[in-house]
Amino acid sequence: MAPARVNADKDAEDELEMKVEKYSRGKGADLKALRDKKLKGQLAVKEKLYGQSAKAAAKAEQWLMPTEEGFLEPDEDLEKTYRVQQELILKEVDLLSSRKPFDMILPVLGPYTIEYTSNGRYMLVGGRKGHLAMMDMLNMDLIKEFQVRETVRDVAFLHNEQLYAVAQKKYPYIYNRHGTEIHCLKEHGKALKLQFLTKQFLLTSINSFGQLHYQDVSTGEMIANYRTGLGRTDVMRVNPYNAVIGLGHAGGKVTMWKPTSVKPLVTMLCHHGPVTAVAFDRSGHLMVTAGVDRKIKIWDLRKYEVVNSYPVRAQSLDFSQKGLLACSNGSLVEIYRDFGGHDYRLYMKHRMMKGYQVGKVLFRPYEDILGIGHSMGLSSILVPGSGEPNFDTFIENPMETTKQKREKEVHALLDKLPPDTIMLNPSLIATVRAPKKKEKKTKKEIEEEVEEAVDAAKNMERKKKTKGRSKPSKRAKKKEEDVFRAKRPFLEQSKEADGRPDKKQRIGEEGELPKALQRFAKKPQS
Amino acid sequence: MRVKVISRSTDEFTRDRSQDLQKVFRNYDPGLRSQEKAVEYTRALNAAKLEKIFAKPFIGAMDGHIDAVSCMAKNPNHLKAIFSGSMDGDIRLWDIAARKTVCQFPGHQGAVRGLTTSTEGDLLVSCGVDCTVRLWKVPMLKMVDTSDHIGDTSQPSAVYTWKHAFWGADHQWDGNLFATVGAQVDIWDPNRSEPVNSFEWGKDTVLSVRFDPGDCNILITSASDRSLTLYDLRMSSPARKLIMKTRCNSVCWNPREPMNFTAANEDTNCYSFDARRLDEAKIVHKGHVSAVMDIDYSPTGREFVTGSYDRTVRIFNYLGDHSREIYHTKRMQRVFCVKYTYDGTYLVSGSDDTNLRLWKSKASEQLGVLLPRERKKQEYLDAVKERYKHLPEVKRIVRHRHLPKPIYKAANMRRTMIEAENRKEERRRKHSAPGSMPVQPFRKRRIIKEVE
Fold first, then answer.
1. For B58-363, CATH number?
2. pTM (2 decimals)?
3. Measuring CA to CA, which residue among A35, A492, A429, A442 is closest to residue A242?
4. Which of B29, B35, B36 to mutate to test the interface with A (most CBs of A within 10 A)?
5. What mean pLDDT comes out for the span B265-270?
6. Domain-wise residue ranges, chain B
7. Do A421 and B41 touch (CB under 8 A)?
8. Global ipTM
9. Are residues A143 and A183 in the same domain?
């Protein structure tokens, strides 16, 4: 009895330690290297506080998180999860969840693209031929539906469901939730794809000339306008970790952009042939790209290396909050799961009706649902284990009331980040630049090196030579020469370290000497 | 096959009735919070800016005296009461909350130089250049002042005439003796018409006196022979004396660390000393551009306020070498006396322009009762400001103070002079025999000697 309890305690401790690591945001500072005692003390107190808060968060996890994660597990090893059909899942799950998946057949105005708000409550639907609709997915209510009677290429929510942008035939437009046109963004031109950077309040678009626009939607100011120079593309995704924009180009390149630099931060050659889709993991370390060369590649963005590559064709890709990867190909939607070490294996499979072309797959945040926009309308399927089960009221709240929404909007505007906070490694903000490596040696170091070299030259073994060439006088002379030769390079170095040429040279080089001194100046050699 | 999906019923996650509080769910996962550091930094920056926007430290001036305010005393019984004495012999009791005179104490024929109250707060002692010590009964202050009339006058309960003019007075923290200083240091019992004890060390005038809050028998004085002298009432003669290069106008003990005191010096600096080690100052507080006239510690002992001849009032951290805050107004003239109120939220300064001025000790603090949420928010903002205070942008905003042109110029000039002096010293050192001119820390440089 007793050993079992000890084991259980130890397990609980290990589990807590793992959880603490999740909350501790990296390793603490190394205090042993510090010489300043006062600073050391202050930092030690801070580190202790950080540790305590991480531990408190880990301990509170079980009380604060009411919802459990979804899962789909086989009973025995031979059973495969990807053979499970949606009908079977629907039978197994509770009534509330079974109402969530749907198929909407809208054959006239398709193909459709979809978009969710960041709290996963509202869905925006855009039909290629001008059909726009917004839905409340919690109550399955249609909020507004209307037609713009021109091509709709992409839709994007702004900071909440009150406003959304639509890339139409000639320009992107901004509508409010009642479908009233608020703005026409002519400067963007014929936008093909829209993305919204929530923290910075930037609406980003790529247009048919391959120009990337960043516009601040809170002030209306156009922040940046860059020519990509890599041709027309409609593959654009924002990396949620650092708000860097990733673009996939027809030449197989993927470029990453921030609004404060004219040139891309990163250019990677990812595929032979055009890139068809790009998606980023929530942690920001993984990128997945798909090309027409029938490959999906998973990249580690810390090393810019391929972690894994699969021979699959994909038109659209999306990472879920829990790291599932959805990709669509024709009428087939496949979902992959990481089985450890970035080994993505097929987890679920869903085949749409024959002839449907899936245009976009998108996981709904905070739900186990995958939204699918296709040529004949839209669908959604259940994908157990895809969404984050527990939301934070003060970050994203799927159940938020009007008042909470308003308050959140105000806070978001107060905490609006300036565009220069977008960088590849966002944790670099407020850190100290590492000291540069010393290039010039100090005088003392040079002296030490000279001594070493001189010693080496003195102690060199010399061959015994015949015919009087090994006389003591000759040997001494030779030794002297060797020593001088060993010294010479250092003499030049020390002159450079001094930062001024030797005296003789100075007199010769300076043209503007007083008259009385000019006769001492070196004559220029003719 | 086992299947489970996320399922949230709306009832569980929303409140039942509209009177209920909203349900709050937390998930502290760092993965949900992207660009955390950037957000925190932006908040710190905004908080620093807002602090500057809300920095309105001046509350009001209290007008009434017809000559310069020379001294003040706090009343330990009433938070909102303060006494002030002026150069024409007028003593007034002020209600800080209403900013009005409550009571006047007429009688002195010349300038009032010392004011102090007993620990019980019922006795006011005043002394001045007319060689008299007057004891007054302090009137009760009403909680809410309804009447509009400008106070009544009061009669002294005792008048003691003595041999010399007085320069300062202070009451024991624990006990009923008080000390007056002038040509000598006199210890008085309020019931005797002559001092119970007198000390003398040298013939120069003593300028100020303060009793130690920790030990009621120890007091410190500053004198015009540039000395700081420690006295023990249990001994017949003064205990120790420190002579500096310039005189100290005022001294004040740190109420939380009663072995430490800070002296306001004529050479624009304040010097914090440990009373057990007088051979070097613990910290030199620089900042003023003219003589520091008065100093008073906050009851928390973490800050002190100084008033100076350069027309500014500054607040220093007790460990800080430069001022945390500089207060000035167009109309404020030479500041002769400053006091920190007993709750640590206000400062009172008395100046040459006959006014008492009331300031907030934290310039941007919101006065009045804060809701818990407001307080927490404020604490959070203070914490992020503290965290990012070293970053150039935040630092620039937090450090910036607008100064009147004369003070700004004087500070620049002082800096130039000090630099030149240092340069000269450095050159002298270079051209003299090695070791003949040892580098002396600034903490010791202004001290001449310590006499036992």
1. 2.130.10.10
2. 0.84
3. A429
4. B35
5. 94
6. 34-55+371-401, 58-363
7. yes
8. 0.81
9. yes
